[in-house]
Amino acid sequence: VQLQAFGGGLVQSGGSVRLSCGASGIFGRITSMAWYRQAPGKQRELVAPIASGGTTDYANSVKGRFTISRDNAKNTVYLQMNRLKPDDTAVYYCSADQIYYNSRELPAVSRHWGQGTLVTVSS
Hints:
Blueprint: E1 2-6, E2 9-12, E3 17-24, E4 29-38, E5 45-50, E6 66-71, E7 76-81, E8 90-101, E9 107-113, E10 117-122
């Protein structure tokens, strides 16, 4: 499974950016998808997950400003980021969990990651 993320760039404080991430090479079924971010010198943190049925959650730092959504037919997840702050500067990574049957015909789960896209918010 390959994930390709798009949409990063330089934006001014208070501006908006929309990230997208599409999955290909799927051999099972994609369940949860999510966005993570990693700021310079910090650990990677979960920004927002979204279940296959559309249930979402958000990190407290982005609630009310970011919206995660997905298109199951396209195996694509989006992150609309509004009212951006300099603290939102980070490399943003998408992830996708896949359920499949392994060589022993038992259900298994694999997590896959996109390559990351840099979002820089200037003050």
